[in-house]
Amino acid sequence: MRKVILLLLLVVLASGCRDGFTAVGAGHVVVTTNIKEGSLSFIDVGKGRVTATWKVQKPVTGTFILPDGDTIGMYGKDMDGVELYSLQTGRAAGSWPTGKGVVNALVSGNRIFLANQTTNAVHVLGADGKEARKITVGQSPLTMTEDASHLYVLDFHDKMVTVIDKKTYAALRTWRIPASSAGAVVTSRGEMWVGGHGAGDVLNEEVHVYRTATGELAKTVQASQMPVGFAADEKCVYVLSHGTGILTKFTADGYQAVQSEPIGSNPFTVQKYGEQLYVASYDSDEVYVLDAGTMKVTGTIQVGKGPFQLTERRGTR
């Protein structure tokens, strides 16, 4: 009888381990999605170090934070849906049966936009996971960026941007972009900077700047190989080239490169949080923290294997 009780306790404990992770709490964190091992690392911004690691052991490629500030959503192209967890408790909070194909997510207000390469559409969901609209776009939607009124969806294979009204969900217009475009940011000047890996054996070393109101090409900016990571503020655009591991700071109004710094090993992603830049270094399993003004590294944080995507959760205390 004692052996049976012990066995039941072990089963319950094992089940609990599968359903929950270390509580993250309510503080300010940056989350890295580590795709080589299927894990999430939680960086406490104030402490400058990882305070929790979740071994998800699923093909997760990205995360997003719901409007409640506590629920984190995990997605991946080969996952059957979006998995939800509470950061406060580390416990499962449900799932959304989106089907396979989700490659990107963007939270805007109380809506979550999911780019799905199986349906070749953007699915608009409420915070409860209910679908409000399915918007058909081109083949293999990948990058999404926004301004106050519009969502911009870049198709990896169709060489096209689709402009979507965020209130009516109407697809307003499209314009052409280079093949295999990936990575973009909209500036306060009403311009969208677009990068990419390049097509075939030709590596891309250019960033194309478009006027969002018309789709007109405003400027072609020379960058380093494979500019795929972008961040921006009122004055500057930060371009991360993962082919050479170079982070370059450009003036937003004059398109001039003012500073370039080598950073990381095969970095994919840069995000600007406050006055700091966070760069995910894929091959060295690190996140670099830089001062956006000086472009100098202020910290290096060891995370899980293969950091690929970054998500910020502001403190909810």
Helical content (DSSP H or I, runs of 4+):
under 10%
CATH superfamily: YVTN repeat-like/Quinoprotein amine dehydrogenase
CATH architecture: 7 Propeller
Order of helices and strands: HEEEEEEEEEEEEEEEEEEEEEEEEEEEE
Total strands: the figure is 28
**Low-confidence stretches at least 5 residues in length (pLDDT < 50)?**
3-18
CATH class value? Mainly Beta
Structural class category: mainly beta
Distance between the termini: 47 Å
Shape annotation: globular
Chain-averaged pLDDT: 94
Q: Could you give the order of strands across the largest sheet?
A: 3-2-1-28
Task: Indicate the proportion of strand residues.
Answer: over 45%
What composes the largest sheet?
A: 4 strands, antiparallel
InterPro entries: Haem_d1_sf, Host-pathogen_enzymatic-act, WD40/YVTN_repeat-like_dom_sf, YVTN_b-propeller_repeat
Organism: Ectobacillus ponti
Signal peptide: 1-19
Protein name: YncE family protein
In short:
This protein is mainly beta. The chain has one helix spanning 2-19, and strands at residues 29-34, 39-44, 49-55, 62-65, 71-75, 82-86, 92-96, 102-108, 111-116, 121-126, 131-136, 141-146, 150-155, 160-165, 171-176, 181-186, 191-196, 206-211, 217-222, 227-232, 236-241, 246-251, 257-262, 267-273, 276-281, 286-291, 297-302, 307-313.
Explain what this protein looks like in three dimensions:
By secondary structure, the chain is mainly β. The protein has one domain: YVTN repeat-like/Quinoprotein amine dehydrogenase (Methylamine Dehydrogenase, Chain H, 7 Propeller). The protein has one helix spanning 2-19, and strands spanning 29-34, 39-44, 49-55, 62-65, 71-75, 82-86, 92-96, 102-108, 111-116, 121-126, 131-136, 141-146, 150-155, 160-165, 171-176, 181-186, 191-196, 206-211, 217-222, 227-232, 236-241, 246-251, 257-262, 267-273, 276-281, 286-291, 297-302, 307-313. The model is unreliable at 3-18 (pLDDT under 50). Residues 1-19 form the signal peptide.
